[in-house]
Design goal:
heterodimer; A: Rossmann fold; seven-stranded mixed sheet; 14 helices; globular; disordered N terminus; B: mainly alpha; ABC transporter involved in vitamin B12 uptake, BtuC; 2 strands
Chain lengths: ~400, ~290
């Protein structure tokens, strides 16, 4: 019995030594592949629940692509897989603030991606500043981020004070001298209106019908009726997805025959081309400056194809694109300087990044490399019609409805 | 333009009336405050969307399938949850308890839909031609919505008015205790109200899916409007729900034309509050009812 015990003990010692060695090896390996935790919130419920999938689908595509390629390249260390830590902010900016603070202090995320929507970015600016945690913005366009003077957050899209003059330049270039404006009472569209109205005046473009409507709108007959009565040459719908669809439904019924019909957010979203096709979709315009057919950006078409393959629907040319581009910026910055937040802030502030929408470079909070643009549905596809330098087609006046 | 506004207001109002009638059936008989009612419409809308998209089933077939599914859901909820609640809880406590229960159900249904289908809006095209008559131009789907609402509400009214079971349901709406004393089958009336109430909400959703994008969160506004309408018309009053629905529909179109789109909520809730102040029992409710 005792002999047996001694033999077992010897074996145990040997086995134990081997196991300990293996354990160290496994532990080292485990430490080597410990994932990079990247946190963000999305409004999966609430009023923005319908708009955000195009953004987080872009995030998820990027994560899968990076992981499939061996992980996130980090300066000074081995690539590591990406692990997302994401929460639903219920379309409430105050929840975004709480959750990002939790992700920084409790979840101890390594990096952060931006939330969805302008008010959420603005609410988050001071958080990024307080924790000195860099966040590359995406689906936000507001001058207020600049006014906040934050150094750890950057805007992905152009602010309305840059966008509005470009829109007016386009209108002048196609001979539009009058417009009707329908504005949803949400911060981003109201701020856009604030900058667009004086630009229209300055350019001598007459503003006819000029209505604002609440998020709860269910019928636009009266508003579209006043647009028809005004006989403007442009309809500027500063609208969100569901009211953009409501506009099209009503404009069809009332046969709004206006050459330029622009809807702020909507025509680039997949559901829009399920609800409306052919002549109804043809000629509609929206904001954005991206197209997979722009050959100057070699990464654009592969992104489009990969997104289609993963999600079986087209990306949103505005929100999916800028969300993915914000990931690319972070990826390139991390590859250059690692996970140190101060070094990341420095490199994001100064470098030029190669993204699916061409080069992006920040001056302060603003992306100064991308010119704001306009898209138009032509032959069922969205084409860039402004600015001319990157246009993939020329503007065609909208020709009626089906 | 005026004719267009009035007609569009009536079509919108007809759907509101359909939702309000179904909500009032549930409230009138059982005093259950179903704040998840709009979510049943959402379920009906998804049924119609997926059947059309995946199996080419036209929406008019879904007008039968969606109510059958949501009616079954109503039956299961009644048998599994509310029959017991109504035995245990009496009086005003029923309203409070049901409010909480339906809040929970609403959350579960909404989030399940969000989990299954994501928040991405879904849409399809059907009955989307434009019909013109008498200076009015409307999408076919609006006319179909009007027709379906009229037929469905008419069928409910006919059942309540001309059948012996309907008479029992009406008696129950008027006075639950007395109905039980005179031998009315209360359990049958409750089952009827649950099944038909949920089925009509599902039907409304299937109709709405033809002209509005389907999302997991589309039901909330319909619940709100449904409650505004039934309080306006009188809680438990089926005829009041019809008139209230049409009034709110017209306020949303003609009322906005007269004032401005940013007055939309002010108009609806202004009228709602004014009615509550002047006639707390609603436009067609009886004083001291319930």
């Amino acid at each position: 019995m005792g002999t047996k015990n001694r033999k077992i003990t010897r074996r145990t010692v040997l086995a134990g030594a081997a196991a300990t060695g293996a354990s160290f090896a496994i532990h080292r390996r485990a430490r080597a592949v410990e994932p990079v935790k990247i946190g963000f919130t999305m409004p999966k419920t609430g009023y923005l629940g319908v708009a955000c999938p195009v953004a987080y689908q872009a995030y998820e595509l990027w994560r899968d692509q990076v992981n499939a390629a061996g992980g996130l390249k980090i300066a000074g260390s081995e690539p590591r897989p990406i692990e997302f830590i994401s929460y639903d902010d219920q379309s409430e900016p105050s929840k975004t603030v709480q959750i990002y603070q939790k992700m920084i202090t409790q979840d101890k995320v390594d990096l952060l991606l931006s939330p969805y929507g302008t008010p959420f970015h603005l609410a988050l600016g001071p958080v990024a500043e307080r924790h000195k945690f860099p966040i590359v913005g995406s689906t936000s366009n507001s001058t207020l981020l600049r006014d906040l003077g934050v150094k750890y957050m950057w805007a992905g899209q152009q602010a309305p004070d840059v966008y509005a003059p470009e829109m007016v330049k386009f209108m002048q270039s196609v001979g539009i001298d009058s417009a009707s404006m329908l504005t949803l009472q949400l911060p981003a569209s109201l701020e856009f209106k604030k900058f667009l109205t004086p630009e229209l005046e300055k350019a001598g473009i007459r503003l006819d019908a000029n209505d604002e409507y609440p998020n709860s709108i269910t019928d636009m007959t009266a508003m579209v009726g006043s647009v028809k009565a005004a006989g403007s040459k442009a309809v500027l719908g500063l609208s969100y997805p569901l009211d953009s669809a409501l506009y099209v439904k009503t404009a069809r019924e009332m046969k709004i025959d206006v050459p330029m019909q622009l809807l702020f957010i909507g025509p680039a979203l997949p559901f829009f081309s399920q609800q409306y096709t052919g002549a109804d979709l043809e000629g509609l315009m929206t904001i954005g400056e991206w197209s997979p057919s722009q050959t100057a950006w070699p990464k654009a078409k592969p992104f489009y194809d990969a997104y289609m393959a993963k999600w079986n629907e087209k990306p949103d040319y505005l929100d999916s694109v800028i969300s993915y581009a914000s990931c690319e910026i972070l990826e390139q910055a991390v590859a250059k300087v690692g996970l140190d937040h101060e070094k990341l802030r420095e490199v994001i502030s100064t470098d030029t990044f190669d993204t699916i929408k061409g080069p992006i470079k920040f001056d302060g909070n603003d992306n100064v490399a991308t010119k704001p643009g306009l898209l138009q549905v032509q032959n069922g596809e969205l084409e860039i019609v402004w600015p001319k330098e990157i246009a993939t087609a020329t503007f065609k006046p909208k020709q009626g409805w089906s | 333009m005026i004719a267009q506004l009035v007609f569009v207001g009536l079509t919108t109002g007809a759907i509101y009336a359909l939702i309000a009638v179904s909500l009032n059936l549930i409230y009138g008989t059982m005093r259950l405050l179903n704040i998840g009612h709009g979510d049943m419409a959402m379920v009906g809308a998804y049924i119609s969307f997926w059947l059309f998209t995946l199996a080419d089933v036209p929406p008019y077939v879904s007008f039968l399938i969606a109510p059958a599914v949501s009616g079954l859901f109503g039956l299961l909820l009644y048998r599994g949850m509310f029959a017991g609640l109504l035995r245990r809880v009496q009086g005003d406590a029923v309203e409070g308890s049901s409010l909480l229960v339906f809040f929970g159900i609403s959350m579960v249904v909404q989030n399940s839909a969000s989990l299954l289908f994501s928040g991405t809006p879904r849409a399809y095209r059907y009955f989307d031609g434009i019909v013109e008559f008498g200076g009015i131009a409307v999408t076919e789907s609006r006319l179909v919505a009007l027709a379906v609402a009229v037929v469905a509400i008419g069928a409910v009214l006919a059942f309540l008015k001309f059948s012996i079971w309907g008479l029992g349901v009406r008696a129950l709406i008027q006075n639950r205790a007395a109905s039980a004393i005179v031998g009315i089958n209360v359990d049958f009336a409750f089952t009827f109200a649950s099944v038909v109430g949920f089925a009509l909400a599902g039907l409304a959703g299937a109709v709405i899916s033809m002209y509005q994008a389907v999302t997991p969160f589309m039901g909330g506004p319909y619940t709100t409007v449904g409650f505004v309408v039934i309080i306006l018309g009188g809680l438990g009053n089926i005829n009041g729900a019809i008139i209230g629905g049409l009034v709110v529909g017209l306020l949303e179109t003609a009322g906005i034309a007269l004032t401005g789109p940013n007055f939309r909520d002010l108009l609806i809730y202004g009228v709602f509050i004014a009615v509550l102040m002047l006639r707390p029992q609603g436009l067609f409710g009886r004083k001291g009812a319930h």
